[in-house]
Design brief:
single chain; alpha/beta; Aminopeptidase; six-stranded mixed beta sheet; two-stranded parallel ribbon; 8 helices; 8 strands; about 15% strand; globular; binds N-[2-(1H-imidazol-4-yl)ethyl]acetamide; binds zinc ion
Length: about 325
């Protein structure tokens, strides 16, 4: 027994000396370093597939109810404390839709919190479809919706296996995609997008809710994705963008997370920044130098599962995991 004790003390002294001789690492011994668990793209992909099985999750449809129930149960199964919020929202053309927001929280008492968001609704109209006959059909929303949710459900599963030290709030927003089509001759208000998020900002799941920062995932599943530093994200939450893009670069994902300012996208994060003052960024796939267009199947009936790449889901998942663990 005493031998072991001496060995241990010797080892501590040795490490101490080694540390002391190297000024670069001379500061206090590392606090318990939490190993980063490995994000499973297979699992995220399955969660995308499962969402598509409900059909388009259009507000007001049976698929909306069925998928809300499933999402709620998944978050609970992964040990989150879940709040479901229902409201009625009004789209750009005055149509009223039911809205079901879901928030799953981990470590609800932790002060340092990270808000993770993705929208789960499907746009009711494929207004960008090349075939005019299809423009009144809903979109499958594999990338524009299900991809971000797939990544976040895998984050929830990971959180159930190993609790992150920070508090985590996974906010699955509804009624994000009810904004005006480009053909609409009436007003194009920013407030027509992100209706579920705007509801939540008025009435957060916890009164006085705040977080250290927020990250929105939108269209994170395309094989040819490029994530530029979205304009509003850089404007409202520059430090968060830098942290996230630096983390991605360290992981070797510089080509995916392009370190250049991109387009200005009115998305859920804008409302969180403006209403709650939580610095929130949007990881969103934009193309052509990040200056305008989205992935080629955006708001078309071709936004389907076969356009989803596990590799992209993996890289986005890895970045989020490294931020929260
Ligand atoms: C605008 O086109 C103004 N915003 C896009 C927000 C969005 C739609 N994200 C996904 N679908
Ligand atoms: Zn959309």
């Amino acid at each position: 027994m005493t031998h072991y004790l001496f060995l241990i003390i010797g080892a501590i002294l040795l490490t101490g000396c080694a540390k002391g001789s190297s000024p670069a690492t001379s500061s206090a011994a590392p606090k318990e370093v939490q190993a980063v668990p490995v994000f499973s793209a297979d699992s995220a992909y399955k969660a995308v597939e499962r969402q598509l099985e409900f059909g388009p999750r259009v507000p007001g449809s049976e698929a909306q109810e069925a998928c809300a129930l499933w999402l709620h149960q998944e978050l609970e199964r992964y040990g989150a404390k879940v709040v479901e919020q229902r409201a009625t929202v009004t789209a750009y053309d005055g149509t009223r839709y039911p809205c079901i927001n879901l928030v799953g929280s981990y470590n609800p008492e932790a002060k340092h919190r990270i808000l993770l968001m993705a929208h789960w609704d499907s746009r009711p109209i494929a207004d960008e479809d090349p075939d005019p006959a299809k423009r009144n059909e809903p979109i499958p929303a594999a990338n524009d919706g299900a991809s971000g949710v797939g990544v976040l459900l895998e984050i929830a599963r990971q959180a159930s296996l190993q609790s992150p030290r920070a508090g985590i709030d996974i906010f699955l927003t509804d009624a994000e995609d009810l904004g005006a089509p480009s053909s609409w001759e009436g007003p194009h208000n920013e407030e027509a997008w992100g209706l579920g998020t705007q509801q939540w900002c008025q009435n957060p799941h916890v009164s006085g809710y705040t977080a250290t920062y927020g990250i929105l995932l939108d269209m994170v599943g395309s094989p040819n994705a490029s994530f530029y530093r979205e304009y509003y994200s850089d404007y409202y939450a520059n430090d968060v963008v830098s942290l996230v893009w630096k983390t991605a670069a360290k992981l070797g994902y510089k080509h995916l997370f392009v370190d250049k300012t991109g387009a200005r996208i009115t998305d859920d994060h804008v409302f969180v920044n403006r209403s709650l003052g939580i610095p929130t960024i949007d990881i969103i796939d934009t193309r052509v130098g990040g200056n305008g267009s989205f992935f080629p199947y955006w708001h078309t009936t071709e936004d389907t599962l076969d356009k989803i790449s596990k590799e992209t889901l993996q890289k986005v998942g890895d970045v989020i995991m490294h931020l929260i663990y």
